[in-house]
Amino acid sequence: MTRDLPVIDVAPLRSPDRAARRQVAAALGKACRETGFFYVAGHGIADATLQAMFDAARRFFAQPLDAKRQLARNLVGNNRGYVELGHERLDLDAAPDRKEAFNIGLELPTGHPAHAQPFRGANAWPDLPGFRALMLSYYDACLALGTLIHRGFALDLGLDEHVFDSALDLPMATLRLLHYPPAAAGVAGPGAGTHTDYGNLTLLAVDGVAGLQVQGRDGRWILAPHIPGCFVCNIGDCLMRWSNDIYVSTPHRVSPPERDRTSIAFFLDPNPDAIVTPVTTDPSRPSRYPPVTGAEFLQSRLDATYRHVPAAF
Ligand SMILES: O=C(O)CCC(=O)C(=O)O
Ligand SMILES: [Fe+2]
């Protein structure tokens, strides 16, 4: 195991100085061509906000199972709600994941025309004071950060710096709280099986309990420990396709932790009607894929993950 993911300070992406922005873009582009994983510093999300989010996640998972089941993902629909321990299997060749999760998606104002699109819907909320407001404000902060990082990707790929802005303004992004109970004697299963992420970009906050591992190009596993003040970030399958495979979406997994482990993932998938047309700024690299919509692509990936779960669970 090695530890060699780069740390990238993204604050200069907010600078009026184009050369400073380009420098960050080049660092992002290098990381995305190598492992597709990097740490983000200078993200501007306050430590107190992250601490409050971890507290909220722990309060959520500490509720009785019955209360959590009332918010079950299969009742709520649209990839929102609570996923019980053992109900998800990211690696179809392994045992189900030893984790529980809670998802929210974008909240559209009442009457917004985009309500008719796929993956729209209402969030389900637990009866916990302050939880909803905190989750929604964190969602917005992650969306702003993810959009900023996409400006770096665009610069690096030789595109207009703002080309992704309109593909991400009403996204299918999911904010997901995750809880991994400690490894127990005689219980099989990974924390999260080996997988790649589906969307464009994942912003992950981890709590300091070891678990996340990333597969390097040479097949060796790289540890991705907590670095104070940083998010662990990676690109997903949708951005890999969008970049015409210039960027790589890399397999990763979570080993069963020694103690309770909590993480908070923001999966930035594009707008459902965004057209994912592979980038062809490099004339020596013709398009490898036909265009698809963001929703078509996400649905195809979710179908694979949940195929093993009996419909009636
Ligand atoms: O919890 C983690 O550290 C990573 C989780 C993950 O990779 C995922 O849910 O896609
Ligand atoms: Fe992942």
Protein described:
With 313 residues, the chain is an alpha+beta fold. It has one domain (7-305): Sandwich (Jelly Rolls), CATH 2.60.120. The chain has helices spanning 18-34, 47-61, 65-69, 73-76, 131-156, 237-242, 294-306; strands at 7-9, 37-41, 81-83, 100-104, 174-180, 192-195, 201-206, 212-215, 221-223, 231-235, 252-254, 261-268, 275-276, 292-293. The strands form 3 sheets. The protein has an 8-stranded mixed sheet. The model has no long low-confidence stretch (mean pLDDT 94). The chain binds 2-oxoglutaric acid and fe (ii) ion (FE2). 2-oxoglutaric acid is lined by residues 178, 192, 197, 204, 206, 211-212, 252, 254, 263, 265. Pathway: Alkene biosynthesis; ethylene biosynthesis via 2-oxoglutarate. Keywords: Ethylene biosynthesis, Iron, Metal-binding, Oxidoreductase. One of its GO terms (molecular function) is metal ion binding.
Which key terms come to mind for this protein?
single chain; 313 residues; alpha+beta; Jelly Rolls; 8-stranded mixed β-sheet; 4-stranded antiparallel β-sheet; 7 helices; binds 2-oxoglutaric acid; binds fe (ii) ion
Total helical elements = 7
Please trace the helix and strand order, writing H or E for each element: EHEHHHEEHEEEEEEHEEEEH
CATH class term: Mainly Beta
Q: Which whole number gives the mean pLDDT? A: 94
Count all strands and give the number. Answer: 14
- Please describe the biggest sheet, giving its number of strands, its sense, and whether it closes into a barrel: 8 strands, mixed
Radius of gyration, CA atoms, in whole angstroms: 19 Å
Poorly predicted segments? none
Task: Output the CATH homologous superfamily.
Answer: B-lactam Antibiotic, Isopenicillin N Synthase, Chain
Bound molecules: 2-oxoglutaric acid, fe (ii) ion
User: What is the total domain count?
Assistant: 1
What fraction of residues sit in β-strands?
15-25%
Question: What structural class do the secondary elements suggest?
Answer: alpha+beta
What would you say the CATH architecture is? Sandwich
What is the share of helical residues?
Answer: 25-40%
* Overall outline: globular
According to CATH, what is the topology?
Answer: Jelly Rolls
How are the strands of the biggest sheet laid out side by side?
1-2-10-7-12-5-4-3
Alpha carbon gap, first and last residue: 38 Å
